[in-house]
Amino acid sequence: MAAQASIAVGSQVWVEDPDEAWIDGEVLKVNGDTITVKCSNEKTVTAKASHVHAKDPEESPCGVDDMTKLAYLHEPGVLQNLKSRYDMNEIYTYTGSILIAVNPFRRLPHLYDIQMMEQYKGADFGELSPHPFAVADVAYRLMLNEGISQSILVSGESGAGKTESTKMIMRYLAYMGGKAASEGRTVEKQVLQSNPVLEAFGNAKTVRNNNSSRFGKFVEIQFDQKGRISGAAVRTYLLERSRVCQISESERNYHCFYMICAGSPEEQEKYKLGDPSTFHYLNQSNCYKIDGLDESKEYLETRKAMDIIGISSEEQEAIFRIVAAILHLGNVEFAEGDDVDSSKPKNEKSMFHLRTAAELFMCDEKALEDSLCKRIIVTRDENIVKTLDAEAAKGSRDALAKTVYSRLFDWLVTKINNSIGQDPTSKCLIGVLDIYGFESFKTNSFEQFCINLTNEKLQQHFNQHVFKMEQEEYTKEEIDWSYIEFVDNQDILDLIDKKPGGIIALLDEACMLPRSTHETFAQKLYQTFKNHKRFVKPKLSRSDFTICHYAGDVTYQTELFLDKNKDYVIAEHQALLGASGCSFVSGLFPLLSDDSSKSSKFSSIGSRFKQQLQSLLETLSSTEPHYIRCVKPNSLLKPAIFENQNVLQQLRCGGLWKQLG
Ligand SMILES: Nc1ncnc2c1ncn2[C@@H]1O[C@H](COP(=O)(O)OP(=O)(O)OP(=O)(O)O)[C@@H](O)[C@H]1O
Question: What residues does the Myosin N-terminal SH3-like domain cover (predicted)?
Fold first, then answer.
């Protein structure tokens, strides 16, 4: 707990600074509640005493490896400590048992080699420098010795280093739990090789990260009684589908699209591919290359990883054929058709891409065109064919591309799970969670809403865990713990996911009512939550709403909430690909039983995600948690730059502050 030293003239202190967040200086004058400080940047400032913090005069320039060793555990102290360490390439620091990892944005291979793993093997926690291997080792030992399942929760904003940390943990566990001198397709190799495959299909370059995971991931590694890996399962969450058809400036589509464009000349010819800039789904952003990334090499590595996982060469062929088909599909443009409100492929070029897409999907060309340009309306008496105008046909094309891609991704995850295999007799597991951190952008849509719900849930889990630990500690020391404050965010969770009556339930309701719009949905929210202290209707807005999250206020734009929440496959698309001559493609679109295909059975992304989260939280609750908080030191993705304001914001959002005291 932070000690508050008395501040007198001549004391070394920290004061707030608009640029640096905190700056150090010496007290010149104390006048009741106000303190005048001569800062190290030569400025003199006067601040309220409560906004001035003591600085440890004996503070080591190298910092300390555990924040709890700091003389003063306050914001500036913590920030300075992380910064001093970062400047010396010490990117890891403990806060008690939590590991804080500051992204170095440069390779530090010596930190992660086999010798390093050997060193951490069995070492007491805290004995060696802070490291993800140490966290993994504690988890592994606890599992082995106490027989309790463990989880490692890796969090942080996009580009902070979650996936890299997760991979290190997995490597360490594979090292500890692998068979000696093993060869061939062992479980641990398959577990590790699932990473490049998932990354090829689920990662993309964004402005925040050149290799951003566009899905959440929970890897559950199962062990036998001797502590050897005996199975594994991957669960994924909310793949960003919109990216398949739409990319923003300086961003790219999923890596696999560029990989296939860099395939062998035979493949190029077979799939009628060419430069990425010739495809609409890739050329909207004018960004094709990633520094230091050789696409053709990545492609071969992905194929190799697929081999190890046990994806057959026929399956691999079908997978990349589908990827190529999606690219061709995206190049089909539409023009007004002969009838009113109808459409047809725009020109010969569009016909070529339509034909190629049909060939690659192994479906009928005319049927593909019809599924894009027409709808069949089923009435009690007859089926009526309704034509779509060019704009609607384009929407239908994109919907098809997104559906196929997300089915393909789900197939890969299922295949990985089936190939690696589950160990039904396993008593212990270590789960590693790599999931998007709290997000608050200029515009926030349904995705941010789901992501922030996840973070609220994880925060609650964290709060409960810390509270329990504190209780245990105090009980051990025979201290009355009734006054420890339990930070609770249940009210926010109720607002979002209570059934009935929460925002997700109201959204589902709106999606089912034929005449709802985002505006009627917003009105309903305003009405229902007008007295909720976590809900705000922003002034001057008719359809936005603000939620006061634990990490800060976020205003959501409801425009696309209804569309994005609806989870259905257009019947014509289902029929088309279900009838594909390629069993792989038709297998992605299995026939639905009569019952579930009825349009009345509404399926919602929000509700399904809520259930997935519920089940994740149940799994986590049966484990002992360990935390790694990743921090992104700058937005330039460059080494050796530590932006105080930026880091502070992340530490606050991580809810770490409450833990720090
Ligand atoms: N420990 C590390 N050593 C070297 N480079 C790292 C390390 N951690 C992260 N990086 C660099 O930062 C980049 C972003 O890291 P990573 O992909 O793990 O972020 P993330 O938090 O998973 O982001 P997202 O949520 O967007 O997927 C990596 O591609 C790598 O270049």
Answer: 8-57
CB contact at 8 A, 204 and 253: yes
How many whole angstroms from 429 Cα to the centroid of ligand 1?
Answer: 25
Atom of ligand 1 nearest to the CA of 91: 1
Assess whether pLDDT exceeds 80 at residue 73: yes
Q: Which helix (H) or strand (E) holds 193?
A: helix 187-202
> Does the beta carbon of 293 lie inside 6 Å of ligand 1?
no
Confirm or reject: Cβ of 159 under 6 Å from ligand 1: yes
Task: Confirm or reject: Cβ of 103 under 6 Å from ligand 1.
Answer: yes
pLDDT of res. 468: 72
Q: Best mutation site among 90, 209, 454 for ligand 1, i.e. most ligand atoms within 8 A of its Cβ?
A: 209
Instruction: Specify the DSSP class assigned to residue 604.
Output: B
Domain ranges, ordered by start, for the chain: 328-404+570-597, 446-567+603-618
CATH of domain 328-404+570-597: 1.20.120.720
Ligand 1 centroid vs 237 CA: distance in angstroms? 19
Query: Considering the domain 446-567+603-618 in this protein, what is its CATH number?
Result: 1.20.58.530
ipTM reported for the complex, 2 dp: 0.99
**Cβ atoms 30, 9 nearer than 8 A:** yes
Residue among 409, 397, 408 nearest 573 (CA):
397
Q: What CA–CA distance (Å, rounded) separates 460 from 463?
A: 5
Which atom from ligand 1 is nearest to the alpha carbon of 209? 26
| Encoded tokens for 250 | 């300086």
pLDDT of residue 157: 87
Distance of CA 652 from the midpoint of ligand 1 (Å)? 20
